[in-house]
Amino acid sequence: TRDGENCCDNCVCTLSECMCGDIYYAASCPPACGLCICTLSYPPGCRCVDINPSYCHTPCTESRKA
């Protein structure tokens, strides 16, 4: 509920790193980073993961609101 809303659900790429964000960016992520999961923490966080964690291990804080 609340924790799910605070957590981003999209996996995006910045430069050459994968991160999670609630806003869709024009940049496309490599196939290795296609899943964004929520971490049970407070505040709730999220990370990009896939079959190859070596490509997606960058943690992500809750979605920033500019």
From TrEMBL:
GO terms for molecular function: serine-type endopeptidase inhibitor activity. CDD domains: BBI. Keywords: Disulfide bond, Protease inhibitor, Serine protease inhibitor. Residues 7-60 form the Bowman-Birk serine protease inhibitors family domain. GO terms for cellular component: extracellular region. Transmembrane segments: none annotated. It comes from the Eukaryota. Pfam families: Bowman-Birk_leg. SMART domains: BowB. Disulfide bonds join 7-60, 8-20, 11-56, 13-18, 29-36, 33-48, 38-46. InterPro entries: Bowman-Birk_prot_inh, Prot_inh_BBI. Belongs to the Bowman-Birk serine protease inhibitor family. This is Bowman-Birk serine protease inhibitors family domain-containing protein.
